[in-house]
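fyi for ur records
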Amino acid sequence: MKLTQNHTPKRYDAFCLTVILLFGITTLAYTAKPPENILKNGDFDLNLEGWHHWTHADAAALFQTEGKKAEPVVGKKVAYVKISKAGALWHIQFYQQPFTLEKDTTYTYNLWAKSEKPRTVVMRILHQGDPWNEYARQTINLSEEWKEFFITFKMPADDVSSRAGIIMGAEKVDVWLDHIRLYEGEFISDIEGGQPQAVDPSDKLTTTWAALKNQ
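which gave:
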């Protein structure tokens, strides 16, 4: 039987077009090359190499890596902070420095985190050294499940001695961190199935160390 011109072929063409569009969207979302990470060893494959930590005398914490038990988001290891004495918020710090950030450039600070039970920690980008200007800072809410968080910010000045960190005193609750990234541009998800929690910097301008100590 001869098909008429406006029969099944048009439906078939429409179906093919739909498949092509869906395939293209999937490819763009998950196979595009991720932006270059300014931070080193963000997946902790090299344990804590490249990372620093500091604990005030009024607090106590053990910094180490943990493997399969922690169910890493990427790779085989995560950073694990076991807190036995909380102190004040800024008394327990995990960070990487120094690196250069450029004036008027947009950056995204991006990480995955979870905790022993619900608690808050603070993500921040700042100048390493007096006057400890903060370029981006936000409190994030953790739970027992991995969540992705990010801050996108624009640098107000050139800084050749920048720091990216997490402060997590104030609560005696253990914290796990994984896949920590800092890169130029807006947020880009590179893990399929992630549900990122967007957070805005608490202050579009810089804040100082004195302001931090009062919180």
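The first strand starts at residue 52 and ends at 55. thats all i got for now
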